[in-house]
Amino acid sequence: MPRLTEPRIPALEAEEWDSETTELLGDTAVDDPINIFRTLANHPKLMKRWMVFANHVLFKSTLGERERELAILRVGWLCRSEYEWAQHVVIALRSQITEDEIERVTVGPGADGWGDLERAILAATDELHADAFVSDATWADLSEHLSTQQLMDLVFTVGQYHVVSMALNSFGVQLDEGLSGFPD
Predict the structure, then answer these.
(1) What percent of the chain has pLDDT over 70?
(2) Contact of 174 with 11, CB cutoff 8 Å
(3) Domains of the chain from N-terminus onward
(4) Contact at 8 Å (CB) between 127 and 75?
């Protein structure tokens, strides 16, 4: 899938935002908001409602940071969403995921070196991406390590970032300054 080199939907500057967007993003209006928010500023009502769900998945999920970020990176890779990948490489590195592990995410659950839970998370992500369903075997593997709420949060994390990846790719959201895309 080709990456758009120009946005289809512009990333608006803070001075182009309406009052609803400025209020929603708060202090980021004077800082340097990332391109996903600057693009979503074109549709403030959508952004407002999406952010409630996105904030749960990213900040209030019962999944540990490491588990969440492994799933998000795998979704970004599978969806060929370079923007998603680049943003979450930075977050993953702060979530005790090594550069070697980030590289292994590109191989998936079959790569050497994963623990049982990590392998199951990556397998579930692959299955949800391919079939919108977690197989019984993978569900059983996950259930050995995760609570019911964590299982639910995992499925919604993969779904959330699948939707975000589709939007980023289709809107042509460009990488933020200082980020690099997919590994060679």
Answers:
(1) 96
(2) yes
(3) 14-58 (no CATH), 63-170 (1.20.1290.10)
(4) no
